[in-house]
Design a protein that fits this description.
- The complex is a heterodimer of chains A (146) and B (489).
- Chain A has helices at residues 16-24, 31-35, 65-69, 94-98, 127-131; strands at residues 2-6, 45-48, 53-56, 75-78, 81-84, 105-106, 112-113, 137-141.
- Chain A is of the alpha+beta class and 146 residues long.
- Chain A has two domains: 2-57 and 115-141, Alpha-Beta Plaits; 61-101, Alpha-Beta Plaits, CATH 3.30.70.20.
- The longest helix of chain A has 9 residues, at 16-24.
- Chain B has a nine-stranded antiparallel beta sheet with strand order 21-22-23-24-25-26-27-28-31, with no helix packed on it. A five-stranded parallel beta sheet of chain B has the order 3-2-1-7-19.
- Chain B folds into three domains: 3-107 and 238-274, FAD/NAD(P)-binding domain; 118-235, 3-Layer(bba) Sandwich (FAD/NAD(P)-binding domain); 292-477, no CATH class.
- Chain B has helices at residues 11-23, 45-50, 65-68, 130-138, 153-162, 185-197, 240-244, and strands at residues 3-7, 28-33, 71-75, 79-83, 88-91, 96-98, 101-104, 108-110, 124-125, 145-149, 168-173, 200-204, 208-212, 215-218, 223-225, 228-231, 235-237, 253-254, 266-268, 273-274, 292-305, 312-329, 331-350, 353-368, 376-391, 395-407, 417-429, 434-441, 450-455, 458-463, 470-477.
- In chain B, strand 27 and strand 28 (434-441) form a beta hairpin.
- With 489 residues, chain B is mainly β.
- The chains are: A alpha+beta (146), B mainly beta (489).
- Chain A binds chain B through residues 68, 71-73, 87-88, 90-92, and chain B through 15, 41-44, 47, 52-53, 57-61.
Chain lengths: 146, 489
């Protein structure tokens, strides 16, 4: 299946993907209105140091630990995409503890959120990929590895 | 068609159903569910009382889960006996279920010590199942005084769940700190302070010994008045089915790494089972496993022509590395490696011909503070010659011969001399665009595929599947397409 990958040698560390992600999932049509002067809760995070940077989001693992660990049965995997039902999440943070990539994080209402490849919002394709100015983030098929 | 029976209907049962269906879409699965409801997230009962979730959202799997996975669920039934010879499970109604493979996922039950006068207490609850939580909810009237016996995870989650729906909460525990099975004194103090700030009282190092209606008498002689009593002393694994059938039982049903019990075709999983903990492993007592590596290195490089015609060159270099490798498994161990090396090469260069002879020597001194680790020193010396020349018919020949010598290893099989000879012949065609090359490596077949390194554990051997001796014909073609000149000046 297609996943979001980051070619870290092209990542500039500009954090635009975080803003594009927060905007895509805000459901609003005006980016400034959606994000200006607000704390943003993106589902992709730029990590690294002054030498190397790379954006990290859900890997949609073949055998996801978060699905096994969720005490509420809120996380499931369907058609290769790991999804979270935020109405079921109680915010116990177990998935945050077990995810090896740090891909889950609390959203603005305290329930966990994660990258669902922009399939659940109006974007249709991952906003981090479309908005990456250096084409460092790609959405492509690379086989079924973790 | 295989018949699977699962006794229990919790998360271990769900894992089993999903596991079976990943491999066997056909087999018949029967689930014996003691609770009269589909699987739900048990840890959610405190969140339910808190109002963070509701009964519908507590379902651990979608409503059509059993139907989609072709499971027959017997709600409100219990397994009372197991016959591993006949391969049957007897239910509480006397009916016997035959199985080809059986999973015991019976979980655990609250442990209630024999308190004096416990039967005089009207409102007493456990806190484990959804039924427990619903019963407890009926007693929450906004001003009840609640006494929770047990400051473990169950007792504290209960306190968290009901704290805004009662008048007062007191938690007592025989241990001198909260969460005594998982926290040390320092951490427990932090957690206790946080809970006290949100209005929960603690009586630690003290526990109830006697009840008389609404009064608990503590071990210290203190008395506590309460309206509601929650018993959260601990749990016991439900092991009886396997124990009575003659299977091994310790604190839980003893299972191996495949969750198999010692009864044939009987498996156990979840709270009722006891076995290898993959997160810690049985052999290690410490979770830490760190690899540290600090290295410093320096080098000098020098190249000079030393005849007037500039045909002879000498090239000398020296390098030293100091590396420390540290690892923590059970205890700290460190290995220090000091490794200087030097090389000298002399070459002769004339138009199309180049011949070089040279040698490289490497010395290592390895020490460790680990008991039983003998410091050792070894040498790796490489010397040899390589040459390149142009033959008639525009052919290019490259050949090299090197001797790899190792000395000083305790394992004498490592102290070897290996001669590696390689050669390649190439010919350019079509204005050098097409290149044909025939090359051969390790003509004498003396290389081996073993790599030995030293880290904090001692010495490790890595076997690599490398191609040692080979001959290869390669063909390459250059298109020589240049990008258009940029407009930028």
């Amino acid at each position: 299946m297609k996943r979001v990958y980051v070619n870290e040698e092209w990542c500039l560390g500009c954090h635009l993907c975080e803003y594009n992600c927060a905007f895509a999932n805000s459901g609003l049509s005006d980016m400034a209105f959606a994000l200006k002067d607000k704390k943003i809760f993106p589902r992709i995070h730029v990590e690294g140091d002054d030498k190397i940077t790379f954006a990290v989001s859900c890997r949609h693992c073949t055998d996801p630990l978060c699905v096994k660990s969720c005490i509420a049965g809120a996380i499931s995997k369907k058609d290769g995409v790991v999804k979270i039902d935020r109405t079921k999440c109680v915010g116990c943070l177990t998935c945050v503890l077990v995810c090896p990539y740090g891909a889950l994080a609390p959203g603005e209402n305290g329930t966990m959120q994660k990258c669902e490849l922009c399939l659940e919002n109006a974007c249709g394709e991952p906003a981090c990929v479309t908005g990456c100015p250096n084409k460092a983030i790609v959405y492509e098929e690379r086989g079924d590895g973790e | 068609m295989k018949r699977y029976v699962i006794v229990g209907n919790g998360t271990a049962a769900v894992g089993c159903i999903e596991g079976i269906r990943a491999l066997d879409a056909e087999g018949e699965i029967t689930v014996v569910s003691g609770e009269d409801r589909p699987v739900y997230g048990r840890p959610l009962i405190s969140y339910y009382l808190m109002g963070k979730t509701d009964l519908a959202k507590m379902n651990y799997r979608p409503a059509d889960f059993y139907e989609k996975n072709g499971c027959r669920v017997l709600y409100g039934r219990r397994a009372v006996a197991l016959d591993p010879n006949k391969k049957t499970v007897t239910l509480d109604g006397g009916e016997a279920l035959p199985y080809d493979a059986l999973l015991i996922a019976t979980g655990s039950r609250p442990f209630v010590p024999p308190f004096e006068g416990l039967d005089t207490v009207e409102k007493k609850y456990s806190f484990m199942t959804l039924d427990d939580a619903l019963a407890l909810e009926g007693a929450l009237d906004g001003k009840a005084r609640v006494l929770i016996v047990g400051a473990g995870l169950i007792g504290l989650k209960c306190a968290e769940g009901i704290k805004d729906r009662v008048g007062q909460i007191t938690v007592c525990d025989l241990a001198d700190r909260v969460l005594s099975s998982i926290l040390d004194a320092d951490c427990a103090a932090v957690v206790q302070k946080h809970l006290e700030e949100s209005g929960i009282d603690f009586l630690l190092g003290d526990t109830a010994v006697k009840f008389d209606r609404n009064v608990a008498t503590m071990k210290s002689g203190k008395t506590v008045d309460f309206d509601v009593l929650v018993l959260a002393v601990g749990v016991r694994a439900n092991t009886d089915l396997v124990k009575d059938a003659g299977g091994s039982v310790n604190r839980g049903i003893v299972v191996d790494q495949r969750c198999a019990t010692d009864l044939p075709s009987v498996f156990a999983a979840g709270d009722c089972a006891e076995g290898y903990d993959s997160s810690t492993g049985v052999q290690t007592v410490s979770l830490m496993n760190m690899h540290g590596r600090n290295a410093v290195s320096g080098s000098v490089n020098y190249r000079t022509p030393f005849t007037k015609e500039r045909r002879f060159y000498a090239n000398a270099s020296a390098q030293a590395t100091y590396a420390t490798s540290t690892e923590f498994v059970n205890h700290k161990r460190t290995v220090n490696t000091f490794m200087p090396s030097a090389s000298l090469h002399v070459s002769y260069e004339q138009s199309h011909t180049r011949i070089e002879v040279g040698a490289n020597a490497e010395y290592a001194h390895i020490t460790s503070d680990e008991a039983g680790f003998e410091p050792f020193n070894f040498f790796n010396i490489t010397y040899g010659a390589e040459g390149h020349t142009r033959l008639p018919l525009k052919m290019e020949l490259t050949a090299d011969a090197k001797v790899y010598t190792r000395r000083g290893y305790n394992d004498t099989s490592m102290n070897t001399d290996r001669i590696v000879v390689g050669a390649s012949l190439s010919r350019g065609l079509l204005n050098d665009r097409l290149l044909l090359r025939l090359s051969a490596y390790d003509l004498l077949g003396q290389l081996d595929a073993v790599n030995r390194t030293v880290n904090a554990y001692g010495r490790t051997e890595t076997w690599q599947n490398v191609l040692g001796r080979y001959a290869m014909l390669s063909v390459s073609y250059k298109f020589n397409k240049q990008p258009k000149k940029s407009a930028i000046k």
